[in-house]
Every structure is written in structure tokens, then in C-alpha cells.
Amino acid sequence: MSVHHERSRPTDRRVRVQGRPVDSCPALPPETERGSVRRVTVVGEEILSRPCRTVREFGSPELSSLIDDMFLTMHIADGAGLAANQVDVDLRLFVYDCPDDYGIRHVGHIINPVLEPPDPRSRRLVDDLEGCLSVPGAGMTVPRTDHAVAHGFDKEGNAVVIEGTGYFARCLQHETDHLLGHTYLDRLSKRDRKEALRQMAARREDVFAQRVIKAAGLGR
């Protein structure tokens, strides 16, 4: 999921890491210092259109390295969230660094996430602009619920529950969709999907160029 200008990350000290309040978190989380940049897959690639495999083994150096790489790749691409199949890895995992509508920054990862079904009595759909790092340069309005709760595990196999409201709830839903083999384009009408693909065709090379510039600025 991409960050739009009106959704820039908050600069105050209200932060939740792995769902827990902390005093602060650096602008670039520690994972980015250890990570390597990976290529972001683009809509049309087969790995984005099929469900990802459940993670069975936790606590491995390979899993930690993947998460580090995903954090760095997400930040270089100006993302708020990134799923493993967006870096061509067929596993149920995503990372996030995303603000909610209260100005709280949420940073972390979740493995094998499952979203709680929304409560029909309090469910509220919100139409808001949504982008995707795998649909570079495009942004379309997508209806999502304004509250989401994801159950899953951290990289050590500990159970985690991540709750989001507003824009962060949108992020949790967007990234979980990826792991089920869907992009936000699948939620659009035929007309809007065609428009999103038109935007991508017109802007993708500029987006790719900006990623190269940002990576170079970070010495990557």
C-alpha cells in the first residue's frame, strides 16, 4: 500500500510497535538498517494472483532477513505496507509503517494474518483514495471498513493482535488481500480498473525512477 501526500507519517511521539505503545520509533525503523532492497512485483505477475503459503517455521535467520528486506523495500518505495508476494516471496506475511486517523504511527509485521469479520451492527464503509506499490503511479477510491483487527504471529511465533482504525484499518485490509491473491484493482468496477491501469502506464517509469533516486540517497 502506498502513502499519499495527504497521509504523510505523523511526526509526534505517539507510536505503536507490534501493536504496543512505545515512547518513540526512528523515522527509519531498525529493520531498514539491516535490509537489502528487493524488486517490487507488478500487477499482472502470477504470484500476485494466487493465495500465499502459510508460514510453518518461525525464528529462522531467513525469516528475519526477509522482514528486514521488506521494511527497507517498503520505505524506498514510499509505502505504508508491503506483502511478501510483492517482493516475489510466496508466504503469508506483511510489514507496515502506517498512520491511523488519530495521528498514531503503527510499525510492525504480522505473519499468517486473519482478519476478524466486521461487526454488522457497527460496520462503517469509508470511501478513500488507495494506492499500491504493485500498481505504481495509480490511485483510486476504494470502500473499506473503518476498523479492522488482525490475528497472527510475529517472527518468533508469538501470537499478536493488531487493531487499526481509519487509514491503518485500510492498510491491514489491503495487505491481507494481497496474501489472498488479490489487489485493490479486484475491488474496482471495470471502468475504474481500466482507469487505474491507464494511470499506471502513464506514471510507472517516473515512480521507478524515484525509487532508484531514494535508494541511492540511502546508499543502497
Account of the 3D structure:
It is a single chain. The chain has 220 residues and is of the alpha+beta class. It has a single domain (5-217), classed as Alpha-Beta Complex (Peptide Deformylase), CATH 3.90.45.10. Helices cover 29% and strands 25% of the residues. The protein has 4 helices and 9 strands, in the order ββααβββββββαα. The chain has helices spanning 30-34, 61-76, 166-179, 190-217; strands at residues 15-17, 20-22, 81-83, 93-99, 105-115, 125-131, 139-145, 147-153, 159-165. The strands form 2 sheets. Strands 1, 2, 3, 4, 5, 8 and 9 form a 7-stranded mixed β-sheet that branches. A hairpin with a 7-residue loop joins strand 6 and strand 7 (139-145). It is globular. It starts with 14 loop residues before the first strand and ends with a helix. The mean pLDDT is 94.
